[in-house]
Amino acid sequence: MTVTVENPSRTRGTDEVLGVEGLVQHFVSRRSWADRLTRTPQHVVKAVDGVDLTLSTGETLGLVGESGCGKSTLSRCIMGLYRPSAGEIRYAGEAVRGLPSRAQRRTVQMVFQDPYSSLNPRMTVGQTLGELLRYHQIVPRDQVAARSRELMDLVGLPHDALRRTPRQFSGGQRQRIGIARALALQPRVLIADEPVSALDVSVQATIINLLTDLREELGLSMVFVSHNIAVVRQVSDRIAVMYRGRIVETGLTEQIFNDPRHPYTQLLLESVPRMLSGAETHPIGAADSLGTADQLAVVDGEPDADESPYSAHAIEGEHGCRYRPRCPVAMPVCADEPGLLPIAGNPSRAAACWHVDDDRKDKPR
């Protein structure tokens, strides 16, 4: 059975600042001479396999999923670090042909997960920022130093930081430098790829607050990538849940937390422990209403597959719904890929599940 439903995420708004449609990024392994002699086929990794996303002006989209689901690969495709295998990327309504041009690169900038490896250890902070400002002609050459000092003020670092190299800073300070470098080109979209996962817990809150303040002050749109769904809830207006290279659910943040429709989204929420007044903890339920300051989230790695009477019909999820081997409510119809189906009464919601409009309170999780 094949059902064709218009994907709500493909609706183009007048304020769209970033659009992704049918994006595919496959990596093909190189074959050795032994593989060629034995005619071993090349292995294909489907890191991103048909993703549709839109980002509006001033909006923060949280991209969440477990490690290895394709979040960072999708971010690098949007940034132009990878040439996609197929699909379309739009910056402010303008389609990107091949790799982004110099002007297009200024539209979208990225804050990387590891602040130290993303900075040149041989260059001072002033040299790093000055090179960007001069190459892209952001300001006249005689104003480069002044603009560099303004960027330091923007991220809360002293001016003498411009004379130091990355190894002379702490992890949190290096991430502030990475943010300053991204903002130097005056982008409209900021992609934050796991910006706090490499930092101490005590420093994570300051970086999250900095990004939130900068978004409001500069009118930025942001894609916040993380496997920590509690952090994503704190900073995001809308959430897209990713699993094995595909988006399986989208919606407003509170809608996703209060009424998750896809079984994988429910699994993510149930994997987040909640801190109570005592030593007791319990997972977040679908209807729980809790703040973000008292949450501790660890969602990483593949849990064991759930028992399902229809799991045996799937071959590692390559055909039909990819979550089917782990899904506790799989049906024979799940052998067909549902795509993102709209949720009745919620035009901003969609989920890639045939149970999208079911009442899940009585269903196993």
Topology:
Blueprint lengths: L15 E13 L4 H5 L6 E13 L3 E5 L6 H9 L6 E6 L2 E2 L6 H6 E4 L13 H11 L8 H12 L15 H13 L5 E5 L7 H18 L2 E6 L2 H7 L2 E6 L2 E7 H6 L4 H8 L2 E3 L5 E3 L57 E3 L2 E6 L14
Parallel strand pairs: 3-8, 3-9, 6-7, 7-8
Antiparallel strand pairs: 1-2, 1-4, 4-5, 9-10, 10-14, 11-12, 13-14
3D structure, described in words:
With 365 residues, this protein is of the alpha/beta class. It has helices spanning 33-37, 71-79, 102-107, 125-135, 144-155, 171-183, 201-218, 229-235, 253-258, 263-270; strands at residues 16-28, 44-56, 60-64, 86-91, 94-95, 108-111, 189-193, 221-226, 238-243, 246-252, 273-275, 281-283, 341-343, 346-351. The chain folds into two domains: 56-64 and 100-234, Rossmann fold (3-Layer(aba) Sandwich); 237-365, no CATH class. The chain contains ten helices and 14 strands. An eight-stranded mixed β-sheet has the order 6-7-8-3-9-10-14-13, with helices on both faces. Strand 7 (189-193), helix 7 (201-218) and strand 8 form a beta-alpha-beta unit. Helix 5 crosses helix 6. The chain is globular.
Low-confidence stretches: 1-13, 279-317, 360-365
Major beta sheet, strand line-up: 6-7-8-3-9-10-14-13
Q: How would you state the average pLDDT, rounded?
A: 80
Helix content: 25-40%
Shape: globular
> Helices and strands, in N-to-C order?
EHEEHEEHEHHHEHEHEEHHEEEE
The number of distinct helices, counting runs of at least 4 residues, comes to 10
The CATH architecture of the largest domain would be 3-Layer(aba) Sandwich
Number of strand segments: 14
Find the CATH superfamily of the largest domain. P-loop containing nucleotide triphosphate hydrolases
The proportion of strand residues reads 15-25%
Q: What is the third-level CATH name, the topology of the largest domain?
A: Rossmann fold
